[in-house]
Write a structure and sequence with these properties.
CATH topology of the largest domain in chain A: Rossmann fold
Oligomer: heterodimer
CATH architecture of the largest domain in chain B: 3-Layer(aba) Sandwich
CATH class of the largest domain in chain A: Alpha Beta
CATH architecture of the largest domain in chain A: 3-Layer(aba) Sandwich
Helix content of chain B: 25-40%
Shape of chain A: elongated
CATH superfamily of the largest domain in chain A: Thiamin diphosphate (ThDP)-binding fold, Pyr/PP domains
Number of strands of chain A: 21
Number of strands of chain B: 13
Strand content of chain A: 15-25%
Structural class of chain A: alpha/beta
Strand content of chain B: 15-25%
Helix content of chain A: 25-40%
Order of helices and strands of chain B: HEEHEHHEHEHEHHEHEHEEEHEEHHHH
Radius of gyration of chain A: 31 Å
CATH topology of the largest domain in chain B: Rossmann fold
Largest sheet of chain A: 7 strands, mixed
Largest sheet of chain B: 7 strands, mixed
Bound molecules: iron/sulfur cluster
CATH class of the largest domain in chain B: Alpha Beta
Chain lengths: 486, 497
Amino acid sequence: MTANQQKNPKEKAKPFLFSEFCKGCGRCIEACPKNCIVIGQDINTFTGLIPIKISLENCIGCSLCVNACPEPYALAMSTEEMREREEREQSKNKGAGATFSDPSEMFGLDKSPLPKAKKAIDEEMNLPISGPQILKGNYASAIGAILSGCRHFYGYPITPSTEGAELMAKLMPQLDGIFFQAVSEVATVNIMYGTGGAGLPSMTFTSSPGFSLMVEGISYMIGSEIPGVFINIMRGGPGLGNIAPEQSDIKLVCNGLGHGNTHAVVLAPSTPQEMLDLTMKAFELSFKYRNPVIVVADGYLGQMTGKVILPKKLKKPAIPEWAVYGDKEHRANLMCSIYLTEKDLEDHNHYLDRKYDEIKKNEQMADLYKCDDAEVIIVACNTPAQMAKGSVADLRSKGVKAGLFRPMTLWPFPIDKFKTVLPRARHIVVVEANSSGQLEDELRLNLNRSQVTVHPPIHNVRRCGGILPSQQEITEKILSLKLKEV
Amino acid sequence: MSNVNNSNNPNPTRAFYNKFFRHAQGAGVKGYSNHYCPGCGHGVAQKYLAESISELGIQDKTITVSPVGCSVFMYYYMDTGNTQAAHGRASVTALGHKFANPGSVVISYQGDGDLASIGLAEIVSTAQLGIPITVIFINNAIYGMTGGQMAPTTLMGQRTSTSPNGRQPIMGAPFKIAELISNLDGPVYVERVALFNAKERTKAKKAIKKGLKLQMENKGFSFIEVLAECPTHLKISALESEKWVQEKMLPMFPLGVKKDLFAEGAEAGAGAGTGATHTNNFNLTAPTFDAKKVFDIVTGGNDETVPRYAKGVFPKHLDPKDVSMKLAGSGGDGAQTAAMLIAQSAINEGHDATHIPSYGPESRGGTSYADIHVAAEEVLSPASPTPQILIAFNGPSLMKFGPTVANGGIIIYDSSVVTNAPSFKQAKVYGVPFAEIAVKLGNAMVKNIVALGALQAASKLYPEETFLTAVKTALKSKPKFIEVNEKAFREGMKAIH
Ligand code: SF4
Ligand code: SF4
Ligand code: SF4
C-alpha cells in the first residue's frame, strides 16, 4: 500500500478491498473515473475466484466503485488508519487454517445486537352478561372470531359463505379493524400469511372452490408456522357444482392441504352455537400450535339461525415473541418455509410431525350421544349429525339401541374416543353429504392406523349434490339392516 | 466483534446483518458475501435498500418481504423483520403485514417472473389499493433462479431456454410494468431506474430512498422498477451486461419518473401519470377491544333479558317436544323475518329454536321459504319436510307444501291472494287476508306480522306478549313502526276468531 500517505484525520477516505468477498465481476472497474482498478491475476485461496486489484495513487475517494459493487462486504471506504489496522489483522491470519477478518467493522454497521422478543400474554376481559342471542351460523362464527380478538378479515365473496364476510364488512370498521375484499382467494390467503406472520389473528370465510384456491397458501402457512383461521362453508362439487350444502371437502381438509407434509386441525361444528364455540377454539389452537386451523361447515349450517350463548370473556391478543411485527423487539424474526439443504428440510418435517403428534394426542374432540349402550353407532358431523341425532331418537323409540358418534375434530380424527364405543357396537353407519364416503375414509384410515383390524361392518347413508341425508333416510337404512344377525 | 466507534467511518451505515448467519449458517466466506452470481444487479439494488433503511432510521420497523426467485434469500442479509413469500404473492403478503401494523415500513422486493407473471393480479390490485407499501421490482428480462427461461419482460428476439429462437410475437410483447402501474389511480410514486453506470446508480439509490420515505410519511404506494443485470443467463460478463441493459433494454423500458404526486413543485393531487389519482392515507387507529363496546357492536346491544310469558311451559298441545313449521311465500313476503321472530320468541321463552331459510338460486326473487323448529330441549333435525304448521303467502306455496303438512296440523294462508284454496283433510285450514289487512293498516309490509298474529291465535304456540316483545325488540332502532306492527298482529289474531 501507499507508504508515503500522511496519517491525516481529514484525509479523504479511500476504498479498501476485502479480497475474500470480491467475486471479480469487474463492475467497480468500469465505475472508477480514474482507472484505479484492474482485473486481478491471483486466485484467492478462500474462494477460488480472482479478485480485482486497486491502486490508490490516482484515487480521488469518490466511492463510485463501492456503489457499483454488488457485494455487501467486498469494498469499503476506509481511512488510512482503518486500512493499516485491517492489514495488520490480515497478516496475522496468513498461513494454513487461516481465517479472514470480520469486514463488518469497517462498514459502518448498526451495531445494535439482534433483539430477543419477550413471551407475551393475551389479555382477557369480561363481557356483559346477556341472554341468548339468535344468530345465523355464519354470523355466530364471525362473532366468535371477533371475541377471539380477530380484527383482520380478508376474503373473496362466494356463496354460501358470504354472510360471514358481509357481517365482517359491517363490524370491522366499527371496531377499527380491517375488512379487506381481496382480488382473489389466492390473494386472501397470502394476506393472511402476512398478518398471521405479524402475529395477529386473521380469518376468512370461503366455500369449496375458493378453498381449493387457498391450499397453496395454506401449505406455505404450515411450512412457515403461521396461524390463521379458515371457515369453509362446503358446497356441492366438483367444479362449479352448485351452491347447496355438501361435505365433499373432507378429504381436502384432512389430507390435501396443498403440497408437502401438511396437516391442520379441522373442526366440524353442527349448530350455530358450535359455529361460535369452535371458531373461538380455532383461534386458540391456531396460535397454540402456530398452524392454520380449518372450520368446515355445510351450507345449511352457515344459513341456519339458532340460539347462541356468548362466552363470558373476550380476548385482546398480544404480539407473540416469534412474530415479524415490524418493531425493534421482533426485528430478528423470520417467516420462512424454505430449507435449502435436504437434512434441514427433513428435520423441519420431523419437527412438524412431532407437532402433529402433539395435536393428535391433545386435541381429539368428539360428542357421544347415547353411545353408552349403543349397538348401532352412527358416525356423522355438521348438519347431517343433527339429522342423525333425530334418527337416534326415532330408532330408540322403536327399540333399536342406536347412538351417535359425532367427530368435532375431523383431523385429528377422535379415534381414541371411537375405540371406546367399539366393544358394544354391532354396526357402524357413516352418514354424510358426499358421494364418495370421505368421512368414512377418515374413519377407516384411523381404524387402520390404530391397528384396529376387526370391527363391525361399516354401512353408509350418503346423499350429495346439495341434498343432505334426511332423518327418515337414516332411520330407514338402519331399520333395513338385519340387526339380529352379525 | 469489538465495539468500534464508527463516528469516523466514511461508509454509509446499512441495514445488513453484521454476519449473514442464515447464509450456510454463516460459515466461511458465505457469512459475509451474498449468494448472487458475480455482477448480479440484485446485490447492487439491495445495497441501496439497506443503505436507505439505515439513513432513514427505520431499520427496527422495517419488514422485508422476499418471494420466490433469485431474491428469495434476501432474508440472509437484511437486518430487518423478514418474511419469505410464495411465488407471486409478495405484494399481498406485504399488505398483510401493513394491515397488521400500519406503523411498520413494508418492502415487497420482487423479480420479473414473480411480479410480472404469476403475481400480476396481486401487484395490480395492491397498487390500485394504494396502501403505503414500497415495491422494488427487479427487471432483468429473464428468469434467474429457475435457470434462464423467458420472463414477461424478456425482449423481442431475446433467446432464453424457453424461447430458443428468440422471443416471437406469438409469445407476446414484453410487459412495461412501470407504465402499467403508473396508469393506476393508487400509486403516488412510480419510477424506473437502472444500475448500468454511476449516474443511473445514483438515481436508483435516490428513488429507492424516496419510495421508502413516502411510506414512512404515510403518503401512499410507491413502485420502483430497477433494470438489473443477470450476467449468468445473458451468458456475458457483468460489464457486458451493463452495456446490454443500456443498449437493449432501455429502448423498450425508458427510464424516469412515471408518476409522482409528491415531486418538488408538483401540485398536490397532480401526477406525471395519466388518469385520476388519490393518496390512500392509512388509518392508524388501533383496533378496539373495549368489552362493552365490542359487545354492543356484535349484538346490536341486545343484552335484555326478556320475561318468559309462557313461564317455561312448552306448547305440548302441538307436539310433546319439537314443533316443526314452514313459512313459504315469494321474495318480498317477509317470510324470513316472521320465521326469525318465531325462533326469537321460542328462545326468549327458554326453548331451543332453529330457522333455515330457503336456499339456492330460487332465493333470488323466486320462492322464499323457511323451515323452523321449536324444541323443548334441543332441535335435533332442523329441516321441516312434514311441518305441523304451514303459513303460505301465496297459491303455489300452498299447493306445494299443503300436502306435506302432518296429520292434525295447521295451515294458514293468505286468502287475499289465494281465492280457491283446495281442501286439506289432514289439517285445520285457515284463510286469512294477510295482504288486505296490511294494506288497510296503511303498510303492505306488515302482512307477515298479520300472519304471525294469525299463527298465534290458531296455534297458541306462545302467549301473544311473547311475540309482541320479539317484534318490539326487532324494531328497537325503528320505533315509529312499532304501532302499526302491533296493530297488524292483533288484526291477524282477530281474523282467526
Ligand atoms: S474511490 Fe473513486 S477514484 Fe478511488 S478507486 Fe474508487 S472509483 Fe476509483
Ligand atoms: S464490483 Fe465488487 S465484487 Fe465486483 S470486482 Fe469489484 S470489488 Fe469485486
Ligand atoms: S441468476 Fe441472474 S438474477 Fe439470479 S443471482 Fe445469478 S445473475 Fe443474479
